[in-house]
Every structure is written in C-alpha cells, then in structure tokens.
Amino acid sequence: MRLLRRLLSLVVLTAVVVVGWMFAQANPTPVAIELPYAGLLADVPLWLALGVAFGAGLVLAGLLGLLPLMRLGLRARRHRKESERLAAEVHQLRNLPLSSEGEGPPRGSAGAAPDAAASARSAGRGG
After folding, report:
1. Paired sense of beta strands 30-35 and 39-45, if any
2. Cα(first)–Cα(last) distance of the chain, in Å?
3. pTM of the model
4. What gap in Å lies between CA 101 and CA 76, rounded to an integer?
5. Would 112 disulfide with which of 29, 37, 39, 116, CB 3.0-4.6 Å?
C-alpha cells in the first residue's frame, strides 16, 4: 500500500511538473505588473506572474479554510476536558462508602428501619 501511494505521488508530481513546463513554454511573454505600495515590476514572464498569483490565492484560501477547523479543534478540546472532568467525578462518587460509621443501620425510604418499613407495607396491603 505504501509503495502504491508513493508511486501515485510520483506520477502526480511528474504530471504537475510537465504541465507547468508546458505552461511556461506557451506563455513566455514579458509583462509589466504595477503593485500597490511596491511600484512597477517590469519584464516579468507571464507564466511566473500567473503562477505566483495562483500560489498566493491557494495559500490565502488554505489559511481561511483552516480557521473553522481550528475553531472545531478548540471546541473538541474543551469538550474532551469537560468529559474527563465528569468521568473523574463519577469515578470519585463510585468510590464513596455507602454509609459512615456513626450513622447506624441503613434506613428505609420513610426514615424507619428497613424491617419496620417492610412490616408497615405488608400491613397496609392486607387490611
């Protein structure tokens, strides 16, 4: 699989170089470019001017495309930290003792001892 990926990358790179070479051979005309705040650039080959403009646009679009991904990454990090905090809290609650030493026997739902609560329930059903 790795060999296939490298071979495919080599083919794509070769194709890009060949197409670029053909583009440069077809557009050798020198042009003058007037840049704001930089002045006049004279005798720049057309293929170079177009290539630089394309590259600058590609970089700018890539940076603008990374902003939402960075936002999502920060949000995912925040949620992951919150999840870890909650998991630690659940783990801590699971390890708590069921009763303290000074409390005595466990109580039923009405606050009475479990045996008294069971006998009260059975007496209520029978009568």
Report:
1. antiparallel
2. 79
3. 0.52
4. 43
5. 116
Taking the C-alpha atoms of residue 68 and residue 74, their distance in angstroms, rounded to an integer, is: 10
pLDDT band at 33 (very low <50, low <70, confident <90, very high): confident
Quickly tell me which residue has 């080599």 as its tokens: 10
Residue 35's pLDDT is: 83
Confidence of residue 5 (pLDDT cuts 50, 70, 90): very high
Q: Which of 39, 9, 45, 43 is nearest to 25 (CA)?
A: 45
3 state DSSP class of 31: strand
pLDDT at 69: 93
